[in-house]
Amino acid sequence: MARSRAVYEYTEAEDKSMRLGFLLIAAGLLSLLGLGCCWLRPALQERGGGGSANCTVLAVRQLGERFACTFSCGAACRGTARYPCLQVLVRTSRSSAPALLHEDERQLRTNPKCSYIPPCARDDQENSENVTYKQKYWKEKVGSQPFTCYFNQHLRPDDVMLKRTHDETVLLHCFLWPVVTFLVGVLIVVLTICAKSLAVKAEAIKKKKH
Questions:
Q1: 25-31: long-range contacts (C-beta < 8 A, 24 or more apart)?
Q2: I need a labelling partner for 185 at 20 to 30 A (CA). Which of 86, 102, 113, 171 fits?
Q3: In a domain, 186, yes or no
Q4: Model confidence over 42-94: pLDDT tens digits?
């Protein structure tokens, strides 16, 4: 009986293969769960009720109000600077009411009052120049030319985005790689079990012949 049980015991290499397979299965499941709760659900909520439209610039203006931003000048060097608030008001093909344009959902959440947040520099004057450059871009280069923008009637009916942070490609990868990890883990476990089963059967047939 002891000899029979020994035949069915996994070798060290097979044991490592099984552990790797179960580790990949657990990693795939945890990744799906984590991405679903922390990232995918909010992304789908942002996309729900949203769509694309054609936007036309109505007005480009700088407000007198300035906002703070944090710059980094090294590992242990951080500080606060300020930048002027630029607003780009547009009209969409879905509504005649003016809407405030934003770079993307991230910028909208960071500062919903402004249309643009410049890369934070230590010098306030440099931040002002970056905002002024963006203002000229919308006034002179874009002007009255229509462009594609995105909106979400449920979350932000009075705001539109120039681009989406969460597009179809990102959502696809959010699902794809955890599923691939899970399936590779399952495949490793199944192949290891099948290989062991075949080896045991081959050993049993060999013993019967002798």
A1: 25/182, 25/185, 25/186, 25/189, 26/185, 27/178, 27/181, 27/182, 27/185, 28/178, 28/179, 28/180, 28/181, 28/182, 28/183, 28/185, 29/178, 29/182, 31/177, 31/178, 31/181
A2: 171
A3: no
A4: 555 555 456 788 899 999 999 888 999 998 877 777 889 999 999 999 998 87
d(CA 190, CA 25): 12
Domains in the chain, number: 1
Domain membership of residue 108 (yes or no) is yes
- Host domain of residue 103: 52-165
- Residue 144 carries which DSSP code? T
Burial of 208 (0-12, 13-18, 19+ CB in 10 A): exposed
**Does a structural domain hold residue 107?**
yes
pTM value surpassing 0.85: no
Q: Is residue 142 part of a domain?
A: yes
Is a pLDDT exceeding 80 seen at residue 187? yes
